[in-house]
Amino acid sequence: MIKNVKLLITVFVLTLSVNSYSQTIFGKWKTFDEETGKEKSIVEIFEQDGKAYAKILELLEEGKADKLCENCDGAKKNQPIKGMEIIDGLTEDEDGEWNDAKILDPKSGKLYKCYIVLEEDNKLKVRGYLGFSLIGRTQYWTRM
User: Where are the domains of the chain?
Assistant: First the structure.
């Protein structure tokens, strides 16, 4: 009887920890080209000092694995896009939305304000915008 209770508690704790992990923005995400719908990159969102950051782990588009950020400014100009940090410190609000940071579009080299919302366990809404969040574009990333 005690073995069954211990087994049940272990299964419950493992299930709870797996579910709580899947309900976070942290982890590896696949991005897609808005025009073609093709896979574009793999991005890792990670936590550091209570904030969320993101970097590009891999470029999936054929012939672009070693592409440089030609249109970026400052220290990122002509640096490899692979390994580049593209989100610089989102903070989570009471509604579970991550905001108050910038996102880099390596294609244009431009920085945008951004916010991220976990829409489903495996679907992340990433919104980049200028000024007001009404003026911008939204991408949906899928969990790896």
Answer: 25-143
Closest CA to 68 of 56, 55, 77: 77
Q: What is the mean pLDDT of residues 82-110?
A: 96
Architecture of domain 25-143: Beta Barrel (2.40)
Q: Phi/psi zone of residue 128: left (φ > 0), alpha (ψ -120 to 50 degrees), beta?
A: beta
**60-89 pLDDT per residue, tens:** 999 999 999 999 999 999 999 999 999 999
